[in-house]
Each structure stands twice: as C-alpha cells, then as structure tokens.
Amino acid sequence: MRDFVDRLEEIYAWSQFLDVPRSDLPGRQAIQELMIAPECHFGGARWVARRDMRRESTGIISPLNYGPSLRALGWLFPVESDVSVFQPDPDIDPILDEFEDAIRTELTHDAFNKFGPVTVSREDAARWGKLWALDGVTEGERDVAFARLGGARASSVRRKGIALIIAAHKDLAEAAPTADALGTRMADLPASWREAALRPEISTRWRELQVRQLFRLTLGGLFFWTVGTLVKGPMTTRQIARSFLDELSVGSDLPKSAVSWAPGTGLAGNPVTLLRDIQTELQRRPRDPTQLVAAPSHGLAYSLAEAPREAHQFESSDRLPLARARKDANSWKHLAPGEFLVRLIGNWIMAQHAYWSVGRGLANARTRGKQIMRLRIVMDEGGWTLTPGTTTMGNPPQPTPDRLETAVSLLTECRRFEEINP
Known about the structure:
Strand content: 5-15%
Radius of gyration: 26 Å
Shape: globular
Helix content: 40-55%
Largest sheet: 2 strands, antiparallel
C-alpha cells in the first residue's frame, strides 16, 4: 500500500514537471532522469532507492515538506496507529471525487489499479499532467482548504494568525504586497496602521515573537563577528570587547556607560525592519567590519528595550529568555561599555555556544551522526581560539523561517485577499 502511494506521488510530480518544468513542487532534481526518459519502471532496486530517498526528503508528504501539515491541517487521518497508512477526511470526499473526475478516463491504467511493478510512459505522464494541473483549483477545494488553514476547522491560534495576515493586507491597500511588507505591518503598533481598528489583538503576540527573533539574530550576528575576529588569532574576552568597541566607535564618541544598550522606554522602529537590516548586513559580509557591529548593536538595544519583564510561554528557559537578558542588562547598564561587553560575550555568546554545541553534539552522537564536534570556539592558554579546522567565518546566521510566505501563497490560492486597486 505504501509503495502504491509513493508511486502515485512520484507520477503526479513527474507529470507536473513535464507540463510546467518550474512547477512549485519539491523533488524535481530527484527525478531529473525521468524528464528525458521514454518511460519509467516502478519496480526493482532503482525504483526502491529513489522511492526511499523521496520518502525521507523530497517527496510531497515527506517529513521535510508537507507531511506534518497534511495531518496537522486535518487533510489526512491515520488508518491505524503506528502503521503509517493514512486516509483522507471523509468530509472532503466530494472534492476528491471532483479531482478524480478530471482523470477518470485514465484510471484503467495499471499505475492506478495494480500493486507491484508497473511501467508508465513519458507520453502518459505528460498527458496526465494537463488533466490534473496544479493551477486547476476549484471553488470547492478553495473553501475546504481555507476552512482548515484559517477557518472553522483551524486551531484558534492559527485562525487568529490568518486573520491578522488578511487584516494587514487590507490595511496596506496594495494589489500584491510582499510577505515582508505584510509581516512588517503585522508587527506595527496601532498608530502605524492606516485603520488602527483593523489591527487584531494577536498582532501584539506577533510583534513579541519578532522581537525574540531579532534578539536571537543579534546574538547570532555577534557570534558570527566573533568567529571572524578570532580568525586573526586567540584573544581574551576583554580583547574581543575592545576590538568590538574600536570598530563601533569609528567616527563617533562612545558613551561613558552602556546605558544606551540596556532596557529603556522603547525605541522607534519595527522589529521586522531591523531583522531585515541585520540579515542584509550579514549576507553582504562587508569589507568594512563596522557594519557587522553597528547593525547588531542597534538590534540589541531595540530588543532589550522591548523585552518583557516575565518570560513568554514560547521561550525555553535554557535559551536565554528575553526577560532574563533584560535583568542581566539592567544590572550591567551602569558599567563602562567594555565591561558590559565582557559580560555579554561571556554569558550570552560563549556560554550559550558551549551549552548548545555540547547538547547537539551528544544528540548527534546518539543517532550516530557524522558531525559530533560542533564547537567552533574554545578556551586555550592565549584566550578564546577557534577549534582546529575553523579557518573562516562560515555562513552568516539566518532567522528561523516563519512560514509567512507559505501562508500568503495559500491565502492567495484560496482567494481570501480582497481585490484592491493600487
């Protein structure tokens, strides 16, 4: 049964890539050989190897793609526990019948009727691709999809989140705003909305999450800069702090205390905008190193100013909650900038790096992973130094994906955005 489902999934993907080579489906490279083959035999060692690979990574319902979402959104239910066989929600039988009607004249083919090895010609797959095309979404499918995405069948939190996206789209009053523009408006305070009354209450939680993202990316950026600084050779914590200040103070005077970095009354701006600015500077890897300390410094001051006094429920106690960082920063704010940075580097960067490197390394070892040693910075006689083999800064950090682009894409397909004339 599982082999049969995997076969149908690959046939569908193959047929879509034959019809529209740039179809928005995962796994095109995995089946590249089929794009020019006259036929495909679904049986034997070659098929099993490709099937098993797609099942874990590039398949439509693999864990890395849409598998969990299909279950979480209520499209599929387990037939029995611990069997990995699923069936569709009976409520969507009418739209499945409608989908099947499009290819009903082709259903006598062995590919749709027979377990075990079968052969499908490229000509058949290309013909099927036009019959069940990705863009042939019906009104019934749109209604069922939205009910599970952000309607009556969705969880309360997701329903509110989807309502926030729709409200932000309406408030922007643009024909096709980008996901970035929507995310920014979603995180704006009421005064920045064109119609403050449109701003849903959950916008505050979205903003809090973006502030947390900003704080994590700021620390990631500082760690990235630290690795690049240590490429020159070992340094003590004070030397690292001095180097940071030297780069930050080019063309400006430093304050006598670090109070400007510590929690205050809040700063003007939007956390999503700052996230984008820091990410841009990190991706550029500018020759001028001051750009790699200026942007994170602003992000640090902003996220600490917006930090809550009590930890959010979505924060893990061992991942330096913003509330804990705020308390630390408050206790350090009257120190000289160099002393403030000594504590920040030791407690927030080096300690967190060591903690997570050891934890992830042990987890990797338990699963017989290949990369057990994850530490990039260790303490040596001359101070902090890079681990053997670390010769470059590596790749810059990235904020955790928020699936906003996916949500916007699905809402567009469901036609839930009002038509707006710019």
